[in-house]
Amino acid sequence: QFALGGNTSAYASSTDGGFGVAWTQPVSSRSNPRFTLSTNYVSDNAASSTGGLLTDTNSKWLSQLTYGNAKWQFAYAYAYHNCPWSTATTRNGGPCQAWASVYATDAGNDTAIEGEQAHSLRAHWKPSDNGAIPQVQLGYNIRKLMGQQTVGNTVETQSWMAGFMWPEAIGGGRIGIAVGNRERATGIKTAGDPGAVGPDNADGFTWEAYYDYKLNDHTTITPTIFGGSGVYDGSDDDIFGALVQTVFKF
Fold first, then answer.
1. How much is the pLDDT for 225?
2. Ordered DSSP codes for 152-172
3. What pLDDT is stored for residue 130 in this prediction?
4. Are 123 and 132 in contact (CB under 8 A)?
5. Backbone dihedral region of 86: left (phi > 0), alpha (psi from -120 to 50 degrees) or beta?
6. Burial, 181: exposed, middle or buried (Cβ in 10 Å; 0-12, 13-18, 19+)?
7. Which pTM was predicted?
8. What is the dihedral of CA 219, 212, 239, 106, to 10 degrees?
9. Average pLDDT over residues 91-103
10. CA 224 remoteness from chain centre
């Protein structure tokens, strides 16, 4: 839910054959801010006998522009998902159905007929010293679904997250807290109106908190609690959970 500033919309993964190019502005010092620019294309069935690179209709094109240094950074990403569907089966299980219930509400999980365009903003900042002031990470996404002509279809979704992390907290461990909204419909097509109106009935609000403690050089223990309200269809689907993760490295 909160990985990479909320890994939905533009940044949802698509793995198969493709190509990309990236550029980084040269600077004299790592502390100096700099621009980076990258773009890549992936064809969902590039290795398939029925698909192929640049011929498959199921594809993704993602570009990102960043500016910052090791202490802070702003990033903007744009993605175009070409994901037409002809039946309910391909629509609900096809390659553009990347959000699923772990990332989206029910209406936010809708997939476009002709494709979708996603815009994502990211920012992070680290204080000079590890103390009471946390490191901050922010993410915001907006997604436009194309070709949605049927009344009741989702035409726009949005999501956001905010994360705070203290790398040297109690006992030398790391504390992290994150809050946000899952991919949630912010526009639903209604009769007689070609635009987007009406919000999602589901709330989609989620949160998590963890304490990452390094017991020794080989063992890390991470107790975590998490929860949410209206996380999928808005009816009796509030969640709360806890876990303790132990990682051994040799």
1. 97
2. T-EEEEEEEEEEEEESS-GGG
3. 82
4. no
5. alpha
6. buried
7. 0.85
8. -90
9. 55
10. 21
> Tokens for 205?
């609000």
DSSP bridge partners of 224: 210, 243
CB count, 10 Å around CB of 125? 15
State residue 88's pLDDT score: 40
Calculate the dihedral angle through the C-alpha atoms of 98, 100, 106, 112, rounding to the nearest 10 degrees: 20
SS3 for 4? helix
Distance, CA of 185 to CA of 154 (rounded, Å): 6
- Distance of alpha carbon 95 from alpha carbon 157, whole angstroms: 18
- Max distance between CA atoms of the chain, in angstroms, equals 64
DSSP 3-state of 54: coil
For the chain, state the CA radius of gyration: 20
Q: Is the pLDDT of residue 188 over 70?
A: yes
Instruction: Answer yes or no: are the C-beta atoms of 6 and 161 closer than 8 Å.
Output: yes
- Say which DSSP state 16 is in: S
Task: Note whether 167 and 134 are within 8 A (CB).
Answer: no
CB atoms within 10 A of CB 194: 8
Q: Which helix (H) or strand (E) holds 100?
A: helix 100-103
How far is residue 150's CA from residue 209's CA, in Å, rounded to a whole number?
40
With a CB cutoff of 8 Å and minimum separation 6, the contacts of 91 are 85, 97, 111, 113
Could you give the CA distance from residue 84 to residue 56 in angstroms, rounded to a whole number? 11
